Amino acid sequence: MKVRASLKSLKNKPGSKIVRRRGHTYVINKKNPRWNGRQG
């Protein structure tokens, strides 16, 4: 699965990690929940 450009910019934010669950790609950010993202 290609990761969308918007998620790539989110993963560079401090405190974020990329997680894959049930075929979806998520960016989880505990420090700033505004930067959560989802693809798929």
From TrEMBL:
<dbReference type="GO" id="GO:0005840">
    <property type="term" value="C:ribosome"/>
</dbReference>
<dbReference type="InterPro" id="IPR035977">
    <property type="entry name" value="Ribosomal_bL36_sp"/>
</dbReference>
<dbReference type="GO" id="GO:0006412">
    <property type="term" value="P:translation"/>
</dbReference>
<keyword id="KW-0687">Ribonucleoprotein</keyword>
<keyword id="KW-0689">Ribosomal protein</keyword>
<dbReference type="Pfam" id="PF00444">
    <property type="entry name" value="Ribosomal_L36"/>
</dbReference>
<dbReference type="InterPro" id="IPR000473">
    <property type="entry name" value="Ribosomal_bL36"/>
</dbReference>
<comment type="similarity">
    <text>Belongs to the bacterial ribosomal protein bL36 family.</text>
</comment>
<dbReference type="GO" id="GO:0003735">
    <property type="term" value="F:structural constituent of ribosome"/>
</dbReference>
<dbReference type="GO" id="GO:1990904">
    <property type="term" value="C:ribonucleoprotein complex"/>
</dbReference>
<protein>
    <recommendedName>
        <fullName>Large ribosomal subunit protein bL36</fullName>
    </recommendedName>
</protein>
<dbReference type="InterPro" id="IPR047621">
    <property type="entry name" value="Ribosomal_L36_bact"/>
</dbReference>
